[in-house]
């Protein structure tokens, strides 16, 4: 199967002992059966992609209901995955996908929104150094100078206080530790972005 990507939710973390007797952290991710709701091709849409839906929505607006009508499901979460070309697509609308696209030991990239930390200063947000507290120093956790007289404005991207976290993050090359199709759980070694119940994309590394 060409599409080696799952839409999952973060369950939590546990630990396991590998074959060498080393205790390793494992993140558990739950998944539901995926349904292909739309297939896009280069000739008609200008690019190749597959739209996949999972979970069940209680209410949907008319435009989404019309969009997913052919797949005969009412997905709560819909994601689109780009393909390099039409030849990579081996699925049709209504096809089901599950965790059997992965095997134990596979390498995957896990993407999602990381935890929001709220408004944070430069020491917490950018690892700035604290000002001295002796010899007359009065600037402890202040930003300090953000520019000189020229060019009379602050450059975009200047490291300053602001919203920390809640941004798209990808952790690469995590190894699949376990796959349980009965409980609909997949486990990966290491930590992944986001709080519990966060929606995460698990993509196989080619």
Blueprint of the fold:
Blueprint lengths: L4 E13 L5 E9 L2 E7 L1 H4 L2 E7 L7 H6 L9 E7 L12 E2 L9 E7 L2 E5 L1 H5 L35 E4 L2 E13 L4 E5 L9 E6 L2
Antiparallel strand pairs: 1-2, 1-12, 2-11, 3-4, 3-6, 4-5, 7-10, 7-12, 8-9, 10-11
Your description of this structure?
This protein has three helices and twelve strands. It is mostly beta strands. The protein folds into two domains: 147 residues, Elongation Factor Tu (Ef-tu), domain 3 (Beta Barrel), CATH 2.40.30.10; 50 residues, no CATH class. Strands 1-2-11-10-7-12 form a six-stranded antiparallel barrel. Strands 5-4-3-6 form a four-stranded antiparallel β-sheet. A hairpin with a 4-residue loop joins strand 10 and strand 11. The longest helix is centred in the N-terminal third of the chain and has 6 residues.
Computed Rg: 23 Å
Residue share in helix: under 10%
Order of helices and strands: EEEHEHEEEEHEEEE
Number of helices: 3
Q: Mind telling me which CATH architecture of the largest domain this is? A: Beta Barrel
CATH level 1 name of the largest domain: Mainly Beta
Q: What's the overall geometry?
A: extended
Quick one: biggest sheet?
6 strands, antiparallel, barrel
Given helix and strand content, the structural type is mainly beta
Oligomeric status of the shown chains?
Answer: single chain
- The fraction of residues assigned to DSSP E strands is 35-45%
Provide the spatial order of strands within the biggest beta sheet: 1-2-11-10-7-12
Low-confidence stretches: none
Q: Report the span from N to C terminus.
A: 13 Å
- The mean pLDDT is 90
């Amino acid at each position: 199967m060409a599409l080696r990507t799952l839409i999952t939710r973060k369950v939590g973390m546990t630990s396991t002992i590998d074959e060498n007797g080393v205790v390793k952290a494992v993140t558990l991710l739950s998944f539901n059966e995926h349904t292909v709701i739309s297939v896009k091709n280069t000739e008609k849409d200008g690019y190749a992609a597959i739209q996949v839906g999972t979970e069940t929505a209680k209410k949907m607006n008319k435009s989404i209901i019309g969009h997913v009508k052919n797949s005969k499901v009412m997905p709560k979460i819909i994601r689109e995955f780009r393909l390099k070309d039409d030849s990579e697509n081996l699925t049709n609308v209504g096809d089901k996908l599950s965790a059997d696209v992965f095997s134990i030991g596979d390498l995957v990239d896990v993407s999602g929104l990381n935890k929001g930390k709220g408004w944070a200063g430069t020491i917490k947000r950018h690892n700035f150094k604290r000002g001295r507290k002796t010899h007359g120093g009065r600037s402890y956790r202040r930003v300090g100078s953000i520019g000189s007289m020229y060019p009379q404005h602050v450059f975009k991207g200047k490291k300053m206080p602001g919203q920390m976290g809640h941004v798209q993050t990808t952790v690469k090359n995590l190894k699949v530790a376990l796959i349980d199709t009965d409980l609909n759980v997949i486990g990966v070694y290491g930590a992944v972005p986001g709080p519990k119940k966060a929606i995460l994309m698990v993509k196989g590394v080619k």
